[in-house]
Amino acid sequence: MEVKRRKDVAQIKKDIARNTKELFAQKGYNATSMEEICTVNNRSKGSIYYHFKSKEELFMFLIKLNNQEWMDSWQEKESQYETTVDKLYGLADHYVDDLANPLNHAINEFVSGQVVSQDVLDEMLSLIRIPYVTYERIIIQGIEREELKPSDPQDLMYIINGLFNGLGTLYYEKDLSEIRRLYKLGIANLLTGIQSTSKIMKD
Fold this sequence. Notes:
Helix content is about 80%, strand content about 0%. The protein has eleven helices and no strands. Helix 1 packs across helix 6 and helix 4 runs antiparallel to helix 5.
């Protein structure tokens, strides 16, 4: 009975976060009030606060869900790509696809405009690092298959992450087709430095 109750509580938290996602996306983090959160969930403040201590905690939970959905979506796609090179281009496309996620504006606002505790900052950093494992795994696989030159996988992971995040700022300047082209160009230029020439010759 206790196990079922825990599952129910976990599902309720997910439901509250997902119901609130569009509200945050439309209004931003700061402009969204607890009253509006209660209304969109058809719940009292007491009910919301039972599951989340604050709007900040609710939003952090929503970011975690959003990141997990991004990872789950990539894992479904990854099997489509055979080589490491294909996976890197696929990751770039996957990253661009997510730039239009309406929640991103609220996340950027939250990250740049809030005075947060060290605990919240640490949690935010842990969420940002979620894709690191995937990037590093693909790089290690590429090195083991001799598709990539022997290198420090962690160094390459940081470079790829920096490339993806850096080009992501163009969302406010260019349309998605142009951004997608630049991501592919970025991967192509990166590969000129890290792709194994012996593997290319064998192919």
